[in-house]
Amino acid sequence: MSYEQFIEEVNTYSRIQAIQSQLSWDQSVMMPPNGAKARAETLAWLSGRAHETITSKKMGELISNLEESLDDLNDDQKTNVLEIRRTYDKATKLPVEFIERLAKTRSKAMGIWAKARENNDFNMYAPILTELVELAREKVSYLGTEKTPYDTLLDDYEVGLTVDYLDPLFAKLKSGLIEVLNKILLAEKQEIVDLDMNFPIPKQESFCLKVSEQMGFDFDSGRMDISAHPFSISISTGDTRITTRYDEKDPFSCLYAVMHETGHGLYEQGLPDKFALTPRGTAISLGVHESQSRLWENQIGRTEEFWKFTLPIFKEEFPDFPKEIDAAQMNLIANQVEPSFIRVEADEVTYNLHIILRYEIEKQLFNGELEVNDLPKVWNSMFKEWFGLNVENDTKGVLQDIHWSMGAFGYFPTYTLGNLYAAQLFDKMKSEFGNVNQMIEGGNWLPILDWLRKNIHEKGRLHSPSDLIEKATGSQPSSEPFLNYINEKYSKIYNF
Ligand code: CO
To answer: How far is the CA of 261 from the centre of ligand 1 (A)?
Structure first.
């Protein structure tokens, strides 16, 4: 049996996933509400077919045969064999009965979670959440426990991630962030202009499309639509989609969502076509993906230089916009720091504290130090200690995120890794390019995209996430570049 036969099977698996992506996009963007039930069933059925394909006897044999003569393969081929081996092993360890039970509990849980959040009723959510925690523990029992059960869950979202790796990384980050936050809270309050006007949606759309194009997004190989929660998804080579939402009172909400999702989309568009439908042509991890979105959104988008370039374009779309508001003012509005309850609305300084809090809670939960019923109490006391705020109700606290209702335990840390990677990559770019600020101000953004193409996008899954970052930047992932970036940026904005 040959490598070509193996690739044929892998392609079949990837094509099923492409169909799933297409249907998921449609589900979130186009589908009428009454289609929900049948669509969920179709998607679950497709998951079954994908699972069958990846766990088939044929696939197992093809992998084993190729492994016997791994040295005859080149690096790209090896990547495909080893990555499919990893997926195969995980998939075969989980009984089909378990996968179906998990899927059913998940769709039930998401409905209960939405109601519980709406009614601010944690007790309504607690029983199903307990079930999901039990299912996650069951999953760990099939996959095998690393040093701790939580390690197994972490590894599922970012290969190689462990508590031993994250604990020191996050401890340093947390103390650094709290230090900056305290300085900001002591700083003199700034005068921020109140943008009390209407920003018509078609004009916002036009502005956001221009920014996305300026970043290098290829609209012949992608499109932008509207959904309740912005996301990006790649369907196939030449077809990457992003979504956004609009608020007529707040043009920043749409802009930064578009920059974020375009960052994700550029990664997908930059994956090597010739390895399409195989792991070698697929993004390596959630953390690296998030580094691409955050780099464009924050390191580039939330700067005065960005606004120097884009404000004239913005003012063309909104002729009534006050003439006296300049790039410095726009930058201030875009970078206000204030401790608040909701993670997805958090600024750059407090965002990662929200994540570390969830990490600590998940860790305790899976290492047997915390019961589901005690979650609100523990959440609120940590929040008070770190953010100085009393959580008024669970809707603004432990009930806010959808992740746990989807059984996604161990997912949150990838968001923070993304922020750390982004700062580290941008640092490296600065040292190679010299004056990146000048490039941003002049609209000369193409070299930035080219650098990411060469160092990240084109690599697909050739290296593990931390190796990829090390190869691109010359050092292992750390929290230092991010903390330096935060200190430098906010000491200027808040004069400390
Ligand atoms: Co993202």
So the answer is: 7
